[in-house]
């Protein structure tokens, strides 16, 4: 049977303009909102303001302010999201370096800032300056040697543990909702679910602080996903300042969609990509008005971040790149291979991560979240330190992998053997044979790849803020760079092979390993999240050239196809299912041939549907019905015999109305008749005073016939955002279908456990 | 009353799997499709293929091909749209130059190609080479002097008239649908309307050819809008090759949405902007799957065009620019002024153009389309030739106006007085005082602006292909460049003013007039079309820098607000209304407090609704009903007394079923009873054979109660794409609301003539 929460349906809006009871129009925690109802309420509000605005100048100004509040909220969200992202970037930069050493001239400087301000830095050794001291130098005066190494190693682990412990404790004590990436929950919230406190001020504060801590601790996680959550918290905060948004759950979700766009915009420095991400991946109801405002919020956020300039290069992200050489058709083959790798990694990651998270949920493991974080952090730090590619922050690693080897590059990855006879412009260096540094780097990258793959599976889902974009991109970038170097060396040493002969003559700069890293990153990210357009656009905004869209697109398409072949769910959908949220995915196609009659309650053999009659029940009858059931509403019919539907009454409003009447209205007693009709008949003089409840009756409940294909019903639920729908046959009420029933039925049809849908 | 065409509702899908009659599932011309039904039919098709694919390997391969056909269609559309755009660009280039002269070395070369291939061209005088001869040189051997000028002038006008006459004749004789920009009609078609032949092969061919002719004739129109129509014709052509798309009007529209994106992609060299344009402006039903495929089609089209390289600079459009200097906050003021100008121009243009088009429609003027084109072409050519800024093609004009004045620029607009003591890098030239050329240019530009504004109003809407993007952008670019030069000179001569002091020291390159031209173009385009996100993204893709998004956005927002203050409709919506197409705009908010009962038919005092009863009407009764009415379908009720709704039968299917039964089934005569029930009762032995029609009955017609607010009804019609909806009260059938009723009601509420909605 349906239970409370399923049926808090659309109120009769015409009668509710002056909201007679205080709590009308709010929803309970972990319940679904009714989109149609929210929309109607907003239209009513709008009508009221418009008609009032003609009364006086003050009201007219108020109506203008109301019309502008949407843009104001967007501006505020953009400013705050950009500022927070900048602060997080700066703090992470500093704290990541703190694990290795400290700046003597000013302890709040990161390594780079410290040496940047130092006058003794030469261009070739930008990373070395006397002001920056490793811990071993500061404490025992040694910077080289085994004991210094061990001391640094030990302090690195200690700092990491310290950060991680602080983070997990803060999350546990102050804001349990601050953990994870937040994107699955935000998707669910945007689809119309209520999770109180998930976007609250505490969550915002704690998530921001702990995000800095966990990213600095060196765990295999990113800040990009959580930044979306942080931006949505900002959105929720600012929308609570304007009654237009705070009192309407539908309108509030428009703001949150825009906030999500702003979050991605600052996370990747990609305003257009952010809007498309919000549209494609996160949002549920995305009207065109919101598109335009989201774009505005995303731009404001991006420009705020740029004026903070956290990386000192007036770029929004660390891993912005510009390539100088084109790609060739023959390279599509390795790009597609990277796509296959990305798809396989996505499948592997989702399967393993979900299995591990399920284990955490169901076994005793879940009882020790702090210990789990400590153990994983310790393992990560111990393994990561010896390898230079895992010791540094993951963003820096990605940035180095994406980079093209210029003439001035001092990195190990650019240790090629130069031809002394060749003089060429700085940016157009021909392919060269790899030097020993590159071979070392290859080994270290291979180890880093295995490590990242394994540790990320265990890291994502712990009780700390953790994003998936950066680790996924790192896995892909490592694999891509390795493939890229391989192809480059192959082309250099075998430039007479038929596939290379056309485009890779000796002395030409034909293979860009950095581009392979970027393609690999896109493929892996696509495999895990199943993003498509937004992924390509984000990557396009990172490279800034239309030129490289085709490789990115080839990899993204391949990766999605390969991953989809093993399972349709992306990581976010998988986590939504794991948590049993009532999320009706727009992307799932329902193709079964069931009818409404197969899904509606009551089923055959179950007790009949609890209904109210329009003019034959007493107050006591109604109270008994309310007491004995926990449904959120009751259909009202002409009489038990005819079963012709006339409307729908909500439990909450029934209770309030009866309570109200008993207190205030004289003569309403337990055996008063309850009338839902327009004009109650004249009663004999000594009969009790009737209770007229027509004004709480929703006269336009949504109905379908019992023969309606479920496909259509699912479509209606999705597009109109219904909570429930009544089922009739030739005008007779037969049953009811709630959103939960629909989700359960869909789970059943997909051979999943229908009981996995937990909320209403 | 509702008439035929309103009610061709959703068939009973369960019974129609094997489509018993040939014509079932098609729609008549100028009728609206039922989206829910199309979707169900596609799901059925898909189910059939999936179940068959398990039977044999051949069927499995066929199912794979079917799954891939979507991508194949996209690839083909991209290739064809890109190729056509390239061919059009090349042909326009050649024919525009043909008006002035001819290339002696090869007559099919345009002026630029001719001199490019010539060895005698010097860098400073790229436009002069002996191979290229003006007509006067060729015919009378003179290139200078009054008589040569007059000869060239005369031939210019003759060529223009010749091109225009050819174009309008071709359109009139072969493809009347090829005229106009096509975007209003495509919007209507995508929203579910049928206009047979509008996207046909003839239209494609004639539109492509005449587009070249009219653009070359020098009329004030562009090829960008018509290119969307051309791309959609390609989409329609390729979708007719695959039964998945050709037999399903809903699926076909998905392809057309993607084709529209490809069209904009090649028109502006902006693949992402194209997809957003299709999403924001053109499409009605745009699932995420289509987003991804549209992106693919747009990319393929862009790369095809680039490999054709029509402009010889590996850019997709003529007016691609790169700016070298940033903009300053104080410049936002002129940018916003340009936005205001754009909004005013948009309003002026829409009002005047619609008034003129209405006049053409209602007076005798409309009877002489050929003469009209000839007259307008003659006027355009006569006025345009003496002014160098109107003589050349509008794209070239825009390109020059957008351009920043580099050191090597020889154009009149870049005739600044150079400081001989100053040596600076090529791209970073300080602001300089304007020379005489600039002053001349300002006068000529002012005249060109007035001319363009007036002539465009009369040009758009003639019976030739005509796009609006380019003329609108030209108006804005001229205004913008003039403002830009003004600000530049102001800043140069008054650099001690407080607003300039901070950012415009002497010797600094602080004002870029080209950027003002671009901002002005965006503002004017926004004012006319009311595009928002897609406009900014298209412009962003033209400049290639995130830097200039803020000015563009400021102008676009201002322009939209200003224009919206005078009237909400963009030019495309205005033309849709003018033509009376049944287009239910997603962007219009319906905020009135009417109820379903106010809109449904029959109204009070009208004849009762024509209904069928489930078991008491004879074949003759039904035939009489069909003959006497022209409704597209009839509700079926239990009995005339109870009026309880059981389903909906379509006129077309009723006629076919009765005809069929009379021919094939023995014993069905005029007084046979028609049964819509599941099990007809046993009849007395000598009564005529009954006719069972349950299988043509749609058992799940869409219903709402009479108290449903129209706001909700409009939402349902929009989101579910219904054709009609039945109105009930307590299970009794009261009336019917069709899409046309909804549109009429909306027109009435907006104080427009409800009879302006002409089609069903």
From TrEMBL, chains A, B:
<dbReference type="GO" id="GO:0008021">
    <property type="term" value="C:synaptic vesicle"/>
</dbReference>
<feature type="transmembrane region" description="Helical">
    <location>
        <begin position="368"/>
        <end position="385"/>
    </location>
</feature>
<keyword id="KW-0067">ATP-binding</keyword>
<keyword id="KW-0050">Antiport</keyword>
<feature type="transmembrane region" description="Helical">
    <location>
        <begin position="227"/>
        <end position="243"/>
    </location>
</feature>
<feature type="transmembrane region" description="Helical">
    <location>
        <begin position="441"/>
        <end position="461"/>
    </location>
</feature>
<dbReference type="Pfam" id="PF00654">
    <property type="entry name" value="Voltage_CLC"/>
</dbReference>
<keyword id="KW-1133">Transmembrane helix</keyword>
<feature type="transmembrane region" description="Helical">
    <location>
        <begin position="515"/>
        <end position="540"/>
    </location>
</feature>
<keyword id="KW-0547">Nucleotide-binding</keyword>
<keyword id="KW-0406">Ion transport</keyword>
<keyword id="KW-0813">Transport</keyword>
<dbReference type="InterPro" id="IPR001807">
    <property type="entry name" value="ClC"/>
</dbReference>
<dbReference type="GO" id="GO:0010008">
    <property type="term" value="C:endosome membrane"/>
</dbReference>
<keyword id="KW-0129">CBS domain</keyword>
<feature type="domain" description="CBS">
    <location>
        <begin position="697"/>
        <end position="755"/>
    </location>
</feature>
<feature type="transmembrane region" description="Helical">
    <location>
        <begin position="195"/>
        <end position="215"/>
    </location>
</feature>
<feature type="transmembrane region" description="Helical">
    <location>
        <begin position="153"/>
        <end position="175"/>
    </location>
</feature>
<keyword id="KW-0677">Repeat</keyword>
<feature type="transmembrane region" description="Helical">
    <location>
        <begin position="332"/>
        <end position="356"/>
    </location>
</feature>
<dbReference type="GO" id="GO:0005524">
    <property type="term" value="F:ATP binding"/>
</dbReference>
<keyword id="KW-0967">Endosome</keyword>
<dbReference type="InterPro" id="IPR000644">
    <property type="entry name" value="CBS_dom"/>
</dbReference>
<dbReference type="GO" id="GO:0005247">
    <property type="term" value="F:voltage-gated chloride channel activity"/>
</dbReference>
<dbReference type="Pfam" id="PF00571">
    <property type="entry name" value="CBS"/>
</dbReference>
<keyword id="KW-0472">Membrane</keyword>
<feature type="domain" description="CBS">
    <location>
        <begin position="600"/>
        <end position="664"/>
    </location>
</feature>
<feature type="transmembrane region" description="Helical">
    <location>
        <begin position="255"/>
        <end position="279"/>
    </location>
</feature>
<dbReference type="InterPro" id="IPR046342">
    <property type="entry name" value="CBS_dom_sf"/>
</dbReference>
<dbReference type="InterPro" id="IPR002246">
    <property type="entry name" value="Cl_channel-4"/>
</dbReference>
<feature type="transmembrane region" description="Helical">
    <location>
        <begin position="468"/>
        <end position="487"/>
    </location>
</feature>
<dbReference type="GO" id="GO:0015297">
    <property type="term" value="F:antiporter activity"/>
</dbReference>
<dbReference type="GO" id="GO:0005886">
    <property type="term" value="C:plasma membrane"/>
</dbReference>
<protein>
    <recommendedName>
        <fullName>Chloride channel protein</fullName>
    </recommendedName>
</protein>
<comment type="similarity">
    <text>Belongs to the chloride channel (TC 2.A.49) family.</text>
</comment>
<dbReference type="InterPro" id="IPR014743">
    <property type="entry name" value="Cl-channel_core"/>
</dbReference>
<keyword id="KW-0812">Transmembrane</keyword>
<dbReference type="GO" id="GO:0005794">
    <property type="term" value="C:Golgi apparatus"/>
</dbReference>
<keyword id="KW-0868">Chloride</keyword>
<feature type="transmembrane region" description="Helical">
    <location>
        <begin position="68"/>
        <end position="92"/>
    </location>
</feature>
<dbReference type="GO" id="GO:0005769">
    <property type="term" value="C:early endosome"/>
</dbReference>
């Amino acid at each position: 049977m349906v239970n409370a929460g399923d049926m808090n349906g659309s109120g009769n809006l015409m009668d509710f303009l002056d909201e007679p009871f205080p709590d009308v129009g709010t929803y309970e925690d972990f319940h679904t909102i009714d989109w149609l109802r929210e929309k109607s309420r907003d239209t009513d509000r709008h009508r009221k303001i418009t008609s009032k605005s003609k009364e006086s100048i003050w009201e007219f100004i108020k109506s203008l302010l109301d019309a502008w509040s949407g843009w104001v909220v967007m501006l505020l969200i953009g400013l705050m999201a950009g500022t927070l992202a900048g602060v997080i970037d700066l703090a992470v930069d500093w704290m990541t370096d703190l694990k290795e050493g400290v700046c003597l001239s000013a302890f709040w400087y990161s390594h780079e800032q410290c040496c940047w301000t130092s006058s003794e830095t030469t261009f070739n050794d930008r990373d070395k300056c006397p002001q920056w001291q490793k811990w071993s130098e500061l404490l025992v005066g040694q910077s080289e040697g085994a004991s210094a190494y061990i001391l640094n190693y030990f302090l690195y682990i200690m700092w990491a543990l310290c950060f991680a412990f602080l983070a997990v404790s803060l999350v546990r004590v102050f804001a349990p909702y601050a953990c994870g990436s937040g994107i699955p929950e935000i998707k669910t919230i945007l689809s119309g679910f209520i999770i109180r406190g998930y976007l609250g001020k505490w969550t915002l504060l704690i998530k921001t602080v702990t995000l800095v801590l966990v990213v600095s601790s060196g765990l295999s996680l990113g800040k990009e996903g959580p930044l979306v959550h942080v931006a949505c918290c900002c959105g929720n905060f600012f929308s609570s300042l304007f009654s237009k948004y705070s009192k309407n759950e539908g309108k509030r979700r428009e703001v949150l969609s825009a906030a999500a766009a702003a979050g991605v915009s600052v996370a990747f420095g990609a305003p257009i990509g952010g809007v498309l991400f919000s549209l494609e991946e996160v949002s549920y109801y995305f009207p065109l008005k919101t598109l335009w405002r989201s774009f505005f919020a995303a731009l404001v956020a991006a420009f705020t971040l740029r004026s903070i300039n956290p990386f000192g290069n007036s770029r929004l992200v660390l891993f912005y790149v510009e390539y100088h050489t084109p790609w060739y058709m023959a390279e599509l083959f390795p790009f597609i291979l990277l796509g296959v790798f990305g798809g396989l990694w996505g499948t592997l990651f989702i399967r393993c991560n979900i299995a591990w998270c399920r284990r955490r949920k169901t076994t005793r493991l879940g009882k020790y979240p702090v210990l789990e974080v400590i153990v994983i952090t310790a393992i990560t730090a111990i393994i990561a330190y010896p390898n230079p590619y895992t010791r540094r922050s993951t963003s820096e690693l990605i940035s180095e992998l994406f980079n093209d080897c210029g003439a001035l590059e001092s990195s190990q990855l650019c240790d090629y053997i130069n031809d002394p006879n060749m003089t060429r412009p700085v940016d157009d260096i021909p392919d060269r044979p790899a030097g020993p540094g590159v071979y070392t780097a290859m080994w270290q990258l291979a180890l880093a790849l295995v490590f990242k793959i394994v540790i990320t599976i265990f890291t994502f889902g712990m009780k700390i803020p953790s994003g998936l974009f950066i680790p996924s991109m790192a896995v892909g970038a490592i694999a891509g760079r390795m493939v890229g170097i391989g192809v480059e060396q192959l082309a250099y040493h075998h430039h007479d092979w038929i596939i290379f002969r056309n485009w890779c003559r000796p002395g030409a700069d034909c293979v860009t390993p950095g581009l392979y890293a970027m393609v690999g990153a896109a493929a892996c990210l696509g495999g895990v999240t199943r993003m498509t357009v937004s992924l390509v656009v984000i990557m396009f905004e990172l490279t800034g050239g239309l030129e490289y869209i085709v490789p990115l697109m080839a990899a993204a398409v391949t990766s999605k196809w390969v991953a989809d072949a093993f399972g349709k769910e992306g990581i976010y959908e998988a986590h939504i299912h794991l948590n049993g949220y009532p999320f009706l995915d727009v992307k799932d196609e329902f193709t079964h041939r069931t009818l409404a009659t197969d899904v509606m309650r009551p089923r055959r053999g179950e007790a009949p549907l609890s209904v109210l009659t329009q003019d034959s029940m007493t107050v006591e009858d109604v109270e008994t019905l309310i007491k004995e059931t926990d449904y959120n509403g009751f259909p009202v019919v002409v009489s038990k015999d005819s079963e012709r539907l006339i409307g729908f009454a909500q439990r909450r409003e029934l209770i309030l109305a009866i309570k109200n009447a008993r207190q205030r209205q004289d003569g309403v007693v337990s055996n008063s008749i309850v009338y839902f009709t327009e004009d109650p008949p004249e009663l004999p003089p000594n009969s009790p005073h009737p209770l007229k409840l027509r004004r709480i009756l929703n006269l336009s409940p949504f109905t379908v016939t019992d023969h309606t294909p479920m496909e259509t019903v699912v479509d209606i639920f999705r597009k109109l955002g219904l909570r429930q729908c009544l089922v009739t046959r030739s005008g007779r009420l037969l049953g009811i279908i709630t959103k939960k029933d629909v989700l359960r039925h869909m789970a059943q049809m997909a051979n999943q456990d229908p009981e996995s849908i937990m909320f209403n």
